[in-house]
Design a protein that fits this description.
By secondary structure, this protein is of the alpha/beta class. It is 39% helix and 17% strand. The protein is built from 18 helices and 18 strands. The chain has helices at 20-32, 48-53, 72-88, 91-107, 109-123, 129-135, 139-155, 195-206, 219-233, 248-254, 270-279, 303-315, 337-348, 357-360, 390-400, 413-422, 511-520, 523-536, and strands spanning 37-39, 60-62, 163-170, 173-181, 184-189, 209-213, 242-244, 263-267, 293-297, 324-330, 352-355, 381-387, 405-409, 427-430, 449-451, 459-461, 467-474, 495-496. The strands form 5 sheets. Strands 11-12-10-9-13-14 form a 6-stranded parallel sheet, sandwiched between helices. The protein is globular, with a radius of gyration of 29 Å. The relative contact order is 0.11.
Length: 537
């Protein structure tokens, strides 16, 4: 309210003690002095004060600030409805939306970079160098982003409503397992505005509704990018299928809305991910807390490969979660030329090196010691330690790693095989940089994030990680009783069928179509189809 005159009071309560007008007058005095106030009934709940401090909607809130747009609950509800409309679109239409967005990223480059400049100016002195690197967009980044979106558009044709498994469970009963969208995703990301169009494209391709919450440090850039997403969608489906959440406080409310949100994907610092995991309640959270990636130089490694891989893994983009944080070196290299050459390469790239305790004992003068092997530097800084064997390297990775991406450099096939099978990480590489752990470089077009969990999706999560399944059973009036009682009870057949056999009720609907389809079938598929049709009858 702007004044006490705008506050309307109801009838006198039978249980109240009076004085509400005085309370409201005091609240308005506080508001006029730029202090917001909540008036709540402390008799009906013992935790009223802590509930208010924790952001719960208790009592009446007095503030001069106005909320623009719908509530987050309304946004989440509209997202659910819009997501269903998006899922009902044809694959061609979803691909067109994504291609439109890719074209707009190139066409509106100047607008995007101008907004990004505002964010970068505001970030000076407030963000670390590696977070500023994540925040900054360039024309090359936008072109690469647009290319990735084109790949996602191409893959939109093989996502939802795909038959993954087909079985005849009994005469005239066909069971199918089909791919479907998860529903509504809540994606929370920090610093990196390029995540917004990537995640939006993956959500569109997979038919999921999407709630986006970017960091305040990228607010201007995110607003422009979100407007482009809306423009790309407007011709095909309600733009409410993808929504931008404005404030951090609204996220706390969203984390309780399991009736609208099916999966939460946090992208950002380990602190962000852990906070979301703790607050999410019954809504599943997919993501990784840290990117502690290792490169191990095996006893039988190629020195040229080792130097290129180590330098790239640490220096190409040190702020990335797939950058090397610890270099493990087999003891045979310590007194040879490779170890000193690799260390010199890192130093020439201004990498600050922390030496592990075992390696420190072998060096006449040790640089800065390692404080913690479980740290994600996110900058030109890394740990270096010596190991006695491949087994020791694997044990070190399992002890200190985060299960993200780990690399071996070796020319020994047995060592490579053992490393691949022993290291329990989402991505395990042989003779290449850890920086390849990326949705675009995996041919996924982009990623919503990299998951180190063991359920549903692991590693770079593209479109397939945003899908789930449903079973579809088509019968002809059967009941369970027919299969359990009497001398003439029916039997289950459980026959696997080729995926291209049409479901019951589809065959013969158009004789000409059926003849044409039969003529183009491969002989072995045609034979399988005849066998299945015979079984049905």
């Amino acid at each position: 309210p702007q004044s006490l005159m705008e506050v309307k009071f109801g009838g006198k309560s039978n249980v109240g003690r009076g004085g509400m007008a005085s309370k409201c007058a005091a609240a308005m005095w506080a508001v006029e002095n730029e202090v917001s106030v909540v008036i709540a009934n402390g008799m009906s709940r013992t935790s009223a004060i802590t509930d208010i401090v924790n952001g719960k909607k208790v009592g009446t809130f007095f503030s001069l600030e106005t909320n623009e747009g719908p509530s987050v609950e309304t946004q989440a509800h509209m997202c659910r409805m819009g997501g269903r409309a998006l899922a009902a679109l044809s694959a061609d239409d979803r691909a067109k939306i994504i291609n439109n967005l890719a074209d707009l990223l190139v066409k509106e480059t100047d607008s995007i970079l101008n907004a990004n400049t505002l964010d970068l100016e505001a970030a000076k002195g407030n963000l670390s160098d590696h977070n500023i690197a994540r925040l900054k967009l360039t024309q090359d980044k936008l072109n690469t982003l647009a290319s990735g979106l084109k790949l996602i558009a191409d893959s939109a044709h093989s996502t939802t409503d795909q038959v993954l498994r087909k079985m005849e469970i009994a005469d005239d009963m066909i069971l199918e397992l089909r791919s479907v969208p998860i529903g509504v995703l809540l994606v929370i990301f920090e610093s990196r505005p390029d995540a917004l169009p990537q995640v939006a494209a993956l959500s569109i391709a997979s038919g999921n509704g999407l709630l986006l919450k970017g960091g305040k440090e990228a607010w201007h850039t995110n607003k422009v990018l979100f407007s482009l997403v809306q423009r790309a969608m407007e011709e095909f489906c309600p733009p409410t299928a993808i929504q931008l959440i404005a404030s951090r406080e609204e996220v706390a409310d969203l984390l309780k809305m399991n009736q609208f949100i099916d999966l939460i994907i946090p992208r950002g610092s380990s602190e962000l991910v852990k906070n979301i995991q703790e607050a999410a309640g019954s809504i599943p959270v997919m993501g990784h807390a840290e990117g502690i990636c290792h490169v191990y130089l095996d006893e039988k490694c190629d020195s040229k490969k080792a130097r290129r891989i180590v330098t790239d893994a640490k220096c190409d983009y040190p702020a990335a979660c797939n950058a090397m944080e610890t270099l493990l070196v087999h003891k045979s290299h310590i007194n040879g030329g490779l170890f000193h050459t690799v260390i010199d390469d890192l130093k020439q790239n201004n990498v600050k090196i922390h030496i592990g305790p075992r390696l420190s004992n072998l060096l006449p003068v040790a640089p800065t010691p390692v404080n913690n092997f479980s740290v994600e530097y996110g900058s030109l800084e890394c740990n270096v330690e010596v190991v006695d064997s491949l087994q020791d390297a694997v044990q070190h990775i399992h002890t200190w790693g985060s299960g993200h991406t780990d690399v071996i450099v070796t020319e020994n096939e047995d060592s490579a095989k053992q490393f691949r099978s022993s290291v329990d990480s989402a991505c395990v590489f042989v003779n290449c940089s850890s920086r390849f752990a990326d949705g675009y470089r995996f041919g996924l077009g982009a990623e919503v994030g990299i998951s180190t969990s063991r359920i549903h999706a692991r590693g770079p999560v593209g479109i397939q990680g945003l899908l789930t399944t449903k079973w579809v059973l088509v019968g002809n009036g059967q009941t369970v009783e027919e299969f359990t009682a009497g001398d003439n009870r029916k039997n289950f057949t459980f026959k696997a069928l080729p995926l291209d056999i049409p479901p019951l009720g589809k065959e013969g609907d158009n004789p000409e179509d059926t003849k044409e389809a039969e003529a183009t079938k491969k002989p072995e598929v045609k034979a399988s189809a005849k066998a299945a049709n015979k079984a049905r009858s």
